[in-house]
Amino acid sequence: MDFLKVEAVHHTYFTKTSAVTALSDVSLKVEEGEFVSFLGPSGCGKTTLLSIIAGLFEPTEGTVTLEGRRVETAENEIGYMLQQDYLFPWKTIEENILLGLKIGVSLTPDKKAYALQLLQEMGLKGVESQFPKQLSGGMRQRVALVRTLATEPKLLMLDEPFSALDYQTKLKLEDLVSGTLKSFGKTAILVTHDIGEAISMSDRVFLFSARPGQLHKTFVIPKELRDETPFNARNHEAYPAIFQTIWKELESLEPAGER
């Protein structure tokens, strides 16, 4: 059985005066424990597809299943991490990381201990009683990841989670997130505009064409890169070739006037 299966997904946004097709006939599969990225021109429907996979709304046509069940029924099995951390500023860090468990009515002493252990593993020991404003942007994103992992989702959706950070923090967080997800055997989908980020973090990269978004090509990242941390992968001798290949393919998808 396929872990995640997207079949013939088509989505159109309707308004009173127009209809805009964001996705057209998208089909793909993701295996359990795999890290994949969605890459493509702006407006190609990457985030729309991520939202459909997360079960936030149904596609106009097509189906998405997680372990054979439609994602609309996969409650609490999908975690979402966004560009903004969306921590509640009036709650402590401990209260923030336990929020998902409270909402899901699944907060137990064992799960609380697990969440606090995750916080420590993220290098955030001792911040439990602090508030978000007392932490840096990178620290807040680590807290957001702990909040997501605390509910033990089977699938993680990462929607440009590092794009608001400075470059040095971004690189460090890529390594941390990648290592954490690998250690837990988590399946993840990353939406990004950064080719380097997609290559260094992923097992496969799905490249989408411009609107309406269609799956244009799939790139399997060489094993020698997959075995490295994201930072080391960027400095590996095999990295430039795959970067240039994806870059040229992505450039070919841009309208002539935008090249």
UniProtKB/TrEMBL annotation:
Q: Does the keyword DNA repair apply?
A: no
Q: Which Gene3D superfamilies match?
A: P-loop containing nucleotide triphosphate hydrolases
* GO MF assignments: ATP binding; ATP hydrolysis activity
Segments crossing the lipid bilayer: none
Cite the InterPro entries for this sequence.
AAA+_ATPase, ABC_transporter-like_ATP-bd, ABC_transporter-like_CS, ABC_transporter_ATP-bind, P-loop_NTPase
Q: Which residues form the ABC transporter domain?
A: 4-235
Q: Does Transmembrane appear among the keywords?
A: no
Which UniProt key words apply to this protein?
Answer: ATP-binding, Nucleotide-binding, Transport
The name this protein carries in UniProt is Spermidine/putrescine ABC transporter ATP-binding protein
Q: Which organism is it from?
A: Sporosarcina globispora
